[in-house]
Amino acid sequence: MIKVIRQWTSKVILIALMLIAIEVPPIAVNFALRYSKTNQLIVDGFMALFIGLMLAIIWWSHRTYEAYNQLGQPAGIKVGWIIGGYLAIILGMDVLSYLNQLIYHQTETANNAALGSMLGHNEVITIVFCFSAVVLSPIAEEFIFRGTLTNMFFKRGNIWPKVILSGTVFSTGHMSTNPISFLIYAYMGMVLAYVYLRTDDIRNSIAIHMVNNAIAMYVLLVQVI
């Protein structure tokens, strides 16, 4: 019993450290924004640091994912699952966003508002941040919230506990300001987890995440540029 408690405690601590780590790179972006109009060299330095931190998190989370992987070798990319998963995310998030606007009068989540505030101030910041949002962040977050988290807790056949846990923890890092905005990101995380667990290949959830973020970043860019 004590051994089991220690194992669970170590796993919880590891996930907590990963959640903290994924929040560190944006700090470099915030520092870069302070110098976006005055010193491009400092901006370039902070953005290089930002990319380095993201790559380090991807390396770490990928190694952890491989250590806990219950599903074996990737089963292959499933285009139908990618398309269906993305459409499920769009439909569900549209419904929840409508309820968020209807009940809480929020036209966008606090997370999207924060992302939008980082765009349009400096060309290098905008380009690097968009690249990260579309490529680096989906890879890192999928390795953490799907690849590591879903394999670390519960047995292989317990899909729904894994899906719910993944979505819930995923949403905690997205600046929710009310229950519905929390559900928006929890729902997205659960769809991604379901696709990953049903296809046995994390590349499918990464692809969905990339497509979703690419379209979201395009919408934000249209608003600020």
TrEMBL record:
It comes from Limosilactobacillus agrestis. It comes from the Bacteria. Keywords: Hydrolase, Membrane, Metalloprotease, Protease, Transmembrane, Transmembrane helix. Residues 126-215 form the CAAX prenyl protease 2/Lysostaphin resistance protein A-like domain. The keyword Disulfide bond does not apply. Belongs to the UPF0177 family. This is CPBP family intramembrane metalloprotease. InterPro entries: CAAX_protease (IPR052710), Rce1/LyrA-like_dom (IPR003675). The chain crosses the membrane at residues 12-35, 41-60, 81-104, 124-145, 180-197, 206-224. The keyword tRNA processing does not apply. Pfam families: Rce1-like. The lineage of its organism: Bacteria, Bacillati, Bacillota, Bacilli, Lactobacillales. GO terms for molecular function: endopeptidase activity; metallopeptidase activity. GO terms for biological process: CAAX-box protein maturation; proteolysis.
